[in-house]
Amino acid sequence: MNRTRPVVAHGLSVLALALALPFALVACGPPAYLNIPSDEGDLLALSSANLSTARELSTKAIASVAEDSGAPPSYEFVLASNANFKTYRIVARDLGPAAITPTANSPEGLPLFAIRSIRVRGTEAQVEVVRPSGVFGWELVDVNLVWNPFGGWRTDMVRPRRIQVDAPTRPEFDLAPQPAPEPAADGPRHHARRRRSRGTSG
Fold first, then answer.
1. For 71-87, how does the pLDDT look when each residue is reduced to its tens digit (9 = 90+)?
2. Residue 170 backbone dihedrals phi, psi, to 5 degrees
């Protein structure tokens, strides 16, 4: 009885699985082509700051620039212009208590870190962050990140470009928590009680 063929077949199956696994992991990974803001005429790239990949990259980049800036105990952050209210809340949660969403009542004098652009090409990404500068007023910082299927995105390099840029634009909507509406004084239960009392009278 020839036992060589089953052993060889098993070995080939294991080899095929080992070769296919990295491609399967990458296929289940982040979008391979992302431009924020979108490039004019580019119809292939995704461009929403509300994608989970964009949120994760924004969080990692802001945290890395904050650390490179001396890890201030509190700071404000601004995301890409098309980020919505939910994305701000998620990023604020992931950044931790030092991060403050910009509101009309934000404390004055806090450093501010703002996402200017996000570019993803396969498993590599570059995020531009604007931060305060004592020399330029506002300067640009490049954050290079790499992705792997077991750890997600991680910062590979933080590189200040020493380029003067305009001050970040704050979001147009108010990020302050809204008070919960007070219950109506004469709600449905009161009406039900009145109907019952009318039905039982007489």
1. 999 999 999 999 999 99
2. -75, 155
